[in-house]
Amino acid sequence: MNRQELRLALRMIPFLDEQDGNTDGVLRLRDDRWLVWHPDVISWLWRRDRELGHPKSRTLSPLLGNGSLLWMDGPSHAAYRRIIVPALRGRLHEATIRELVDRTVAELRPGDRVGLAAWTRKLTLRVVGRILLGTDDEVLLTAFTNWLDRRLGNRMRTLAHRFLGGGAPRFDDELDRMLLQRARTAEPPALAALLPEEGLRDQLVSLLFAGHETTASATAWTVYWLDRNPELVEQIQAGEEELLTATIMESLRLCPPATLAGNRVTSDGVVLSPSIYLAHRRPEFDDPKSFNPKRFLKGKPPNNRFFPFGGGVRHCPGMDLALLEIRLIVTALLARRRVVCVPPPRSCEPQLRGAAMAPPPGLSMVTTCRP
Question: In angstroms, rounded to a whole number, what is the distance separating the alpha carbons of residues 307 and 233?
Fold first, then answer.
């Protein structure tokens, strides 16, 4: 690993911010690896995606397992997507999401100070737990959260595991046993019942992780931006539904739930890493560093410029579900609680959890009942 790659790994957001003046939209990290965000290159990647390789993540594959659907290619990957994409359509789960959102929002006692990102992760994990395993059992989901936090909750510890090895075991045998038992005994059967038995552990952990972490980050950032723009809250509460959609889209642009859209490998061994973060900050977006939801009232940009959930054959299969969750959570908060972020969010350095980009743990929200 050379200096460029090391800087990307150790200080990803500052390193990406340094590329602000690079209008070429490509950056060589080493002879056979490039960071890319130019729209033409992104278009080429999405078109040729089936022909490209998709290597494992050095950070996540030791946790999620080498058999994870996130690293599959070819017929195996296509077969899994045929199972999970129809099962993750938002409209199938709207009643479940509403129930869990109502319960979780009701648990917010007026005046309590709650970590914003931790709260959204708890809620979105409840949702995916119900969809995947048929349960939002507190014991099981807390065990999963604790296991994940031990490995991704601290950036330096995560990097030490990645580069130095050793440390705590990556898997947790007792957690795996609980997950597999629940998957095999869920009544009525949930999404897990549709998955092949071979490699089931890796798929369960992958779907739990991917199905809640990025959605939670996107939801937390949307709440953060609404706190900074109270005039938007008033307009949305007055019934401007299209402005809520635009606010979510603009939050996804400035604070995408993941910084990179995975890696692609060409037939001659060149690794291309699409940068969501940099693509969303190109000058084609007028005043790209400013938060301006109204830019999305004109329509959604093409997917070579705006791709918060990735693209090509690897685009997030739960995108529709995630967008519905964000909308329902934010709507419930605005309807029933006044939310204030503390400390006041003058600046908010993101916390990287794997590839997910969440608000920092120190950012909390305090709620009061809305009359």
Answer: 25
Distances (CA, A) of 7 to 13, 282, 340, 364: 10, 21, 34, 29
**pLDDT tens digits for range 345-357:** 566 888 888 778 8
Quickly name the fold that domain 3-369 has: Cytochrome p450 (1.10.630)
Percent of the chain's residues with pLDDT above 70? 95
Q: What angle do CA 246, 249, 253 make, to 5 degrees?
A: 135
Assigned token pair, 137: 């059992």
Q: pLDDT class for 168, splitting at 50, 70, 90?
A: very low
**Per DSSP, what are the bridge partners of residue 258?**
356
Are the C-beta atoms of residues 273 and 265 closer than 8 Å to each other? no
Contacts of 213 (CB under 8 A, 6+ apart): 121, 124, 148, 257, 353, 354, 356, 358
Contact (Cβ atoms closer than 8 angstroms) between residue 262 and residue 274:
yes
Residue 156 contacts residue 49 (beta carbons within 8 Å): no
* Number of residues in the chain: 371
Question: In this structure, are residues 33 and 5 in contact, taking their beta carbons and an 8 Å threshold?
Answer: yes
Cα Rg, the chain, nearest whole Å? 20
Q: What DSSP string describes 126-178?
A: HHHHHHHHS---HHHHHHHHHHHHHHHSSHHHHHHHHHH--SS-SS-HHHHHH
**Helices 241-254 and 230-237: crossing angle, nearest 10°?**
150
Q: What are the residue ranges spanned by the domains of the chain?
A: 3-369
